[in-house]
Design goal:
The protein is an alpha+beta fold and about 375 residues long. About 20% of the residues lie in helices and about 25% in strands. Residues about 225-230, about 230-240, about 250-255, about 285-295 and about 300-310 have low confidence and may be disordered.
């Protein structure tokens, strides 16, 4: 099931000013008294100004004895007063349908809470006791839900959950739906930031709640392609994959001043190998004069004492003779690498292109 299934409304609250827009498009909330912004993806509520968002009651906001989930991300400026995050009810403690709020006094002081009222059970509150007290200025993801099949109420703060048996459902009344305040006339105004709010008419699983707390609507992580200059800045959304540029064209002998052998050029073009001993081909093993060249004194001196058998040390002449093929092969490899480097630099426009070409040439050796 997708997180957008049974999602009734989602307010990203990233507007610079004005109404809170519903991402699904049908349940925009009216700005009351000029809710501000923090300039970084949240709306800033000032309790002293009685700021909030509201919507008249509709069937979409009403619940009853059904599954539903409420979710907000909030940071309180202070924790001195009880403050409403999200609510739907008439004035007072009667006709309360549901509410997520911060409790500053009494039994649940310093904690977030979920409140509902059913037809017979009356006003019921579940405090987030397991998570405990909160800190001003810290951002919290708060999720509250009713599981009609299990007959339970739940609240989770940053994934830490509390549960309460509850079998009465909720009222379906005409009270206003609000963010940042409560009741028809308003009250318990929020002093802080709201980053988003959402309403689902189903129970979200624990992994779904974690996703809601991490990603905003439509709850998919941006896919950043391979682009030159690094990843896209945060908030720029998705970008298609940008492939690296194609490899440089085959290197002609003229373009390299003749530094590449015919066999290397043939390899770059995908042509068959030139047999050893043939014009343009590699020397055959018996014809490799370098293999019989004496080792240099420096090469011999750089090698530790070599023993032919345990306890027997070879003299300098014997060591030189034993090392001659190894040194010759090493010298030839260095010469080839230098030729390829110069060929790459001659072909390329800059050092970065030269490195790319050099890697291609080395693979052909």
């Amino acid at each position: 099931m997708a997180l957008t299934d049974n999602l009734i409304a989602y307010w990203a609250l990233n507007e610079a000013s004005g109404n809170a827009l519903d991402a699904l498009g049908s349940l925009d909330l009216t700005d009351e008294n000029g809710v501000g912004t923090n300039g970084a993806g949240a709306r800033a509520f000032v309790a002293a100004n009685a700021e909030s968002f509201f919507h008249l009651s509709t069937a979409a906001f009403q619940t009853g004895n059904i599954d539903f989930t409420l979710a907000v991300k909030v940071a309180l400026t202070d924790i001195d007063t009880t403050q409403m995050l999200l609510s739907k009810y008439d004035d007072g403690t009667t006709n309360t349908e549901y509410a997520l709020f911060f409790e500053a006094m009494g039994e649940g002081a310093g904690r977030f809470a979920l409140a509902v009222q059913g037809p017979t059970a009356g006003f019921t509150v579940l405090y987030a006791d397991t998570f405990g007290t909160i800190t001003p200025g810290v951002t919290y993801c708060v999720v509250g839900w009713h599981d009609a099949a299990a007959n339970t109420l739940h609240i989770a703060v940053e994934g830490v959950q509390d549960t309460l048996p509850y079998s009465d459902g909720t009222l379906a009344e005409a009270g206003l739906f609000r963010l940042g305040a409560a009741g028809q006339a308003g009250g318990l105004f929020l002093n802080g930031l709201l980053y988003y709010a959402g309403l689902w008419k189903r129970v979200l699983t624990a992994p779904e709640q974690a996703t809601v707390c991490t990603l905003e609507y439509p709850f998919t992580a941006p896919v950043v392609g391979l682009v030159y200059g690094g990843p896209l800045p945060s908030g720029m959304g998705t970008t298609p994959f940008v492939p690296p540029p194609p490899p440089p064209p085959p290197v002609e002998a003229e373009a390299t001043g003749g530094w590449l052998t015919p066999q290397q050029i043939a390899n770059l073009r995908g042509a068959p190998a030139i047999p050893c001993g043939e014009p343009g081909g590699p020397p055959c093993p018996d014809d490799d004069e370098d293999a019989h060249a004496p080792a240099t004194a420096e090469a011999v001196a750089a090698v530790d004492t070599t023993t032919a058998r345990p306890g027997e040390t070879l003299d300098a002449e014997a060591r030189a003779q034993a090392l001659t093929p190894v040194v010759a092969a090493h010298t030839l490899a260095l010469a080839q690498a230098d030729l390829l480097r110069r060929a790459a630099l001659a072909q390329a426009e800059d050092e970065e292109d030269a490195l790319a070409l050099l890697l291609v040439l080395l693979e052909e050796l």
